[in-house]
Queue: 2 jobs
Job 1
Amino acid sequence: MTSITSLLGFGAEGWGDDLASGALVTIALALATLPFGLVLGFLLSLAKQSEDWALRLSADIYTTIFRGLPELLTLFIVYFGINGLLKAASEGAGLPALALSSFASGMVALGVVFSAFASEVFLSAFRAIPNGQREGAAALGLRPRQAMVLVILPQVLRVALPGLSNLWMNLLKDTALVSVVGLADLLRQTQIAARVTREPFLFFGTAIVLYLVMTAVSSVVIAWIERWTRRGEPAR
Amino acid sequence: MKNTLDPPLAATPPDARPRRRPGFAGMLALGAWLLAGLSLLAYLAAAWNSDLFARYAPIYLSGLWTTIQLVAISFVVGALISVPVALGRGSKGFVQRDLSTAYVVLFRGTPFIAQLFLIYYGFGQFRDFFESIGLWRFFREPWYCAIFALALNTAAYQAEILRGAVASVPKGQWEGAKSLGLSRLTMLRKVILPQAAVVALRPYTNEVILMVKASAIVAIITVYDLLGETRRAYSRTFDFQTYLWAAILYLLIVELLRHATNFAERRLTRHLRR
Amino acid sequence: MTLLKTLVLAGSALAFAAGAAGAQETDAGKDWSTVVIGTEGAYPPFNFLDASGQLQGFDVDIAKALCEQMKVTCTFVTQDWDGMIPALQNGNFDALVASMSITPEREEQIAFTDKYYQTPPAIAVPKDSDIAEPSAAALDGKVIGAQTGTTHLQAAEALFPDAEVRPYPTAEEYKLDIDSGRVDAVVDDVVVLSDWLKSDAGACCKLLGTLPADPAIYGKGIGIGLRKGDEKLRTMFNEAIQAIRANGKYKEVQDKYFDFDVYGS
């Protein structure tokens, strides 16, 4: 039996380089999904506060669906279903066949799930901003848009941060599901290594440690961001 | 709890807001959903196949039952494990505290699917060891492995819920109960836990919902739960409606749970309403 | 944006309904100078990833030989077995060379070339197993492992109605589980099982026997899967299969992996 160091080493025989490339794919997928999910979640939270009941209802339907479905099922529906639609649509329009790669499918599925949860986080953050802030901004002669960008938004982001960091952790962990539709992420590379070497415990154990490192680094970064957003508060 | 802390919504109080007719954007968005819903119905109606339904409806129900059993058993087992973990987290002993913290960080900081693979395929590698301690009969079965993994996972989350809920009961309640001369057990049962339950109800249901969703992964270790049956049906028929039916069933469970909680929460907080 | 999104969703749902009923396109006007080939990469010796992560195997070499014969450039992608047919339909690749049996159920979804090999299924058990013969009675109450969504899994369910058949994502996982004793027997292609039993990894187990290949389940042998309507590509592949059968290239690839005739009668 080959030694652990050579199994986890870098190079042709070792799987270290494969695991590392998988970890990079995992990180890339999570980072690529984040802005998409954040923006969509933010817009949804605006829709949920709209005076227009139709817009509110639409946003609520969205949240209900994508919060309720298992992430794996959402992923299958995007990967098999939306891809089928895209093909039908592009053929119908006479364009060359379009297809979402497993990376893009993962991005769409995870981003949609992230935005559904994020919209609720943003919504409660909006509600935590006292009315006086809006009134004060209006009294200063700021137009609604200026008041939003300069006064409300910075505070909303600060209040929403803990909720959003939770969602980021979930996102990072949910990327592992994309291995099921064939993206060569950390978990899939681990599975391949475990199959070929017949050392499942070693490799899945290593994967768990790598995920722990990723979440640990994330929480350090998040703690730093939280400190930074609170720098304006008076010391207590 | 959230609602009691939150100030009233938006610039004008909701009741003072004129009930506006939907604008262009709202109509468009709602219309889009309506269209999506109708085309889903149209698709399901067009793809309707009574043979398929007769063959797979009972299979789906048995898969659904498997999912429910899996979640229910794991939730209870996880609740039992969560008690010592929660106590350990609040303990003054370094060993207990560090061990339970490590447990919580490990299970909350890594994907459930990786934990499941480690437990199922990883432990399979040590058959001789598990046989020697008489546990192989347990780890041999994918069903038990699935329960084991899901219970360990949820215990880490439940420990945090439990800890938070008990900590949320004001100190005065403990002191008051003690001054009434209640025994520790009566105090917990009659004073502390009912109050903690009000706080914990929503996080606990959320956890059940998350478990229903997470349990969909066990199909990968050969357990035929709802998603497992769905994937089997899909691999036989290559008919996309198999996934849509599963989606409808999952949404039904989750919504049922959510509405049941809302109802229970209203009942439990009757005394707080004015 | 929300609006745009919901619109896109609704529009695509409509397109879905329309597309499901839409007519098949043909590839008559298409220039097949490059062909993307999809395979699984977890089914040795037919297709697998070697220690350095490169695709190898009989399927892969046959595909390369066919591409050379057709004078087209081929690239390979891997895809999990579960999503093989939808990925082909969605255009993630053009030809599916992954040891897929030509069955009536699959022919409703995709087109197949003529067969390029045909081997019977078989059953393997641990060396110390008390299962004496591959009969329904001997496997009563036993646990059988097979790959999910395969003809072998269907055959196992049909031949051994009183056994519990468990579906594994790839062949590699049921091999791990028969080694650890979680399953009492596994059913797969005889070549796949023999190849594994010859290796160190298969030291645990022995071949119990081959199984009858019910044509209702196994169809017409192993073919290359193509999208319906890609008739031109189908003709190209069929002619190439005949050509490499005739010019000795097929035998050359076969002899690299096997010491018997895998084409079947």
Job 2
Amino acid sequence: MKSTKLTFLGLASALILAACTGGAAAPTAAPVAPAATTAAAKPTEPAKPAPAAGETITIEYWQYNFQVRIDAMNDLIKQFEAANPGIKVVHNSEIPNADFQTKIAAAAAAGAGPDVVTLFNGWVPAWVDAGYVIPLPEKDFPPAEIEKNFTSLVQGTKFQGKYWAIPTAVRSLALFWNKDMFKAAGLDPEKPPATLDEFVDYAKKLTKTEGGKITQQGFAVEMNGQAHQWFREVLTRQFGETPFSADNKTINYGSAKACEAFTWLTKFETDYKTGSNDLFDGATTAFTNGKLAMHIDGSFRLGALNSAKGLNFGVAVLPTRNDIKSNFGSFWTHGITKKAAADPKKLEASIKFLKFITTPAAGTLWVKYTGELPAQLSAAADPALAADPKLGAFAKQMPYSIATFFVDEAKQRQALIDAFDAVRLNKVDPCKALADAAKKDQALYDDFWAKHK
Amino acid sequence: MTLKNRRILWAYLFLLIPLTFFIVVRTGPTLFAFDISLRNYNPMAADKPYNDFANFARLFKDLADPDHVTRKAFENTFKYVLIGMPLQLSIGLLFAMLLNTIRRLRTLYRVIYFIPFVTSAVAVAWVWRSLYMPDFGLFNLILELFGVPSQRFLLDPAQSLPSVTAVVVWQGLGYVIIIFLAGLQGIPETFYEAARVDGANRWKIFTKVTLPLLNPTLVYLLVLQTIAFLRMFAEVVNLSRQGDGGPVNSTTTVVLRVFRESFGSSLNMGYGAAITVMLFVIIMTISLVQMRLTQRQVEY
Amino acid sequence: MDLTYSPPRRRGLPTPQIVAYAILTLGALAMVTPFIWMVATSFKSPGEILQPRFLPEDPTGDNYTQVLTRTLFPQWYLNSLVAAAISTASVGFFDSLTGYVFSKFEFPGKRIAFILVLATLMVPTEMLVIPWYVMAQQTSLVDTTLGIVFPGLITATGVFLMRQAFKSVPDELLDAARIDGMNEFGIFSTVAWPLVMPSVAAICIFNFLGNWNAYIWPLIVTSKRATMTLPIGLAFFSSEAGSAWNLIMAGATLSTVPLLTVFVFLQRQIIQGVALTGMKS
């Protein structure tokens, strides 16, 4: 018993000792962060006036954590600082995508946070409501110029008659197909399906099963990926419905026609059994690892797919129906925060920075890093882009891409994920599941518009 | 100053920091939580007005709607308690008794059973998630050996809740075993001997000697584990694909709802706080029942 | 302790013993298999993860290099260690002191003070995270070590355990020290405290484990990768890694194995400590 006591004593003192030394070690050890952090090293250090340079203004720029975007922005910031010696930009890209809105809210409430911030286009109304961003000064960003020079997608973020944010680049959806699997199934590896009917046909032909187990998938619906966007803005239109009323107040995707589109989508899993997002750890992984023949995804996926070993894939425009072409356009856009607006010098620097990162040249740089297309039409019209075997499909679809007016993007996505799961897993009638989702979304829109009469 | 008064002063001095701490970090925030639950509380908004119990009205409306996710969260949480707690206690008691019978290797087994308990729930959840994978997870590899078709476990709404429960039971088992073992070792050998002399069989000994004498431990674990299951969060977040308690809300819990509402895109802290008040009432009721039970214990 | 007791031996083990060993071994297998799977997967190459097999065909340590160089694991480790150590030291001291006062002192308001502490046990942490978050925001404690540890610097459970523990310390001993002219803090720290060290160690161990594995509060109060604790970092890293299970399992292994090693060495003290906290509360 005595020895036990001694051990306890020793342990307790060791713990307390650990507390002291641990606490003391922290500050010295903190800067020795691994290489990966250097990109975003010490992002939120309070802006101190640099004594030597005298007139240096420091502004903070925040975006969510995504490596190619970080690299692209670091490059832009380097160029910007070289061109504007009086301005220093602190880049914070530490926050994961899922937490981004919450953490911005937290920082803003504490009077901290970014001066220039990147947000998803679908978040603009919510961010305006929350008061995170100010309208872009019309003197520096004349609406007429924006509408003339930028892709028309940007007009979707006009809210309460004003522009609140402006993007560097935009993206759309496309069909990715595995050429080797096409060849093995006796299909022309250079001819992806052009229509929805062909698409179904190909998906069936490309599916292989062994002893009741799917070993190669033709197509799998990734509702938590891009399939919900594809459904909302593309499939519903192709089946003769418009997803939203022109004033964005009424949701139409609960209708019978929209349900035809939704049923078409659910059949891949319930009837044709060409694959499932549950298999091979999700459709994107399955496609990357050569377990899925066709995949609908965005341009931002190119980087990862290009670096996948032994993956021989092509990128094509989305299949059509009744000759109706449509695409879902989306983008991360940049705004100026209230915090920046509170200090005239910071505001001026922020405006300069925002202008710099939204030039055609910035868009051209951006596409090289990320695969997202320049938002400025002059840069997007570059024939090299249209001719690019991978980017070409995206460039071709830009003119008819539509940006959804989201009220709460996360909840709207979840509603469709739940509806799809209810059909495939709980055998709920597709039309009922879809109508429920549309009803939930309509309630969100009603609340929203009640606040914005 | 008298010696007595000096000691009183010392007592106050010693308690100064701890009591301030409890008031600022515990009591104050408790009252604050009630206050938030009565307001339309978005941390961003300058104005956080009282809203005539609208959060509670919404909560009761949502609870009345069988399809609502909040209702599902409460239902699931009760299911976790009703499946997980009895399972954990009965397996835990069985293993503790087995450990109590063996003569050798007891320490080794004890250590092995305790390993999951010292591991973080996050790591455990991710390991189990890969074990449960439909195509290449260990469980399906084993099932395949027996010719059983591949199961989707966490991805199937019919199997997901039991699958999550299994992880939590597995992880907490070591703790339950240790506490039971300590309780068993506190039962004097003479009671067993007396029973054996009376010719009691194993089952009789278990029901007439072990269980009654183990009652305080049993009640303690019952309450503790019930509350632990009521507060489930980390496992569910990390076991469900979107961290949302899916598929189709089949694994979501009360605390996950609180988290999503309060810190998710809607930042609806008033409603989140209203749910926590509800949780508080449930847990307090259980604690009070426990106090009653243990007090009766002391009396006889 | 049990090894010294030798039961009446027959040839071989009696049947119930064999059954007991069989079930216990089966159970032990169920306890360790997930960990073996974790380690095995952590040595698989990316191409191997979607293959249905248990052990890696061509083990590679590459996953560990990637996790250690491309993520902030070392930083998360340090953050967890610092947070758990600070709160454990604070709990070890303040819980003892508070328990000591409630056990050995009489003063006006004692009952009220005691009920105040007792009442906090009734309130689940989940109810407090919203207010704590609002408080942390207003005091700029978000993303700081203090922000992570402040809710757990003193615990009511620990106070109760220590109050029980100090009851076993005879009053005569303390009075003798008083007669020697020692001040009250000296009596606490040099006379009474050393006598209850097993209990102190128990609450420290329990608290350290709790803090090391804490999830919901650190999740809420940290927003940047650099300030995350190990569980938060692991969860963040794993969901970002998508389906790179080889990397996720390497991360899980890195986050569990060091603590498990400590546990194996100190298993007796840790298990007894945990059992003690269970019995007294």
